[in-house]
């Protein structure tokens, strides 16, 4: 199976279980500010 065939939801669930991954949520219609002390890679997933 190639990664492009894996659903985004499945990829995200796997990433959330990994060491070095911090999960933050922004609730609908609520502004949220993040402070990052890198190095970091920011992925914004809109569901």
Structure overview:
This protein is an all-alpha fold and 47 residues long. The protein has one domain. The chain has 1 helix and no strands. The protein has one helix at residues 8-16. The longest helix has 9 residues, at 8-16. It is extended and about 35 Å long. The two termini are 24 Å apart.
Biggest pleated-sheet summary: none
Judging from the principal axes of the Cα atoms, what is the shape?
extended
Total number of domains: 1
Overall strand count = 0
Task: Please specify the SSE layout and strand pairing.
Blueprint: H1 8-16
Which key phrases capture this entry?
47 residues; mainly alpha; 1 helix
Can you describe this structure in just a few lines?
With 47 residues, the protein is an all-alpha fold. 19% of the residues lie in helices and 0% in strands. The protein has one domain.
């Amino acid at each position: 199976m190639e990664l492009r065939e894996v659903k985004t939801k499945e990829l995200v669930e796997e990433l959330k279980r990994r060491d070095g991954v911090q999960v933050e949520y922004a609730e609908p219609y609520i502004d949220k500010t993040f402070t990052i002390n890198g190095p970091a890679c920011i992925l914004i997933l809109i569901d």
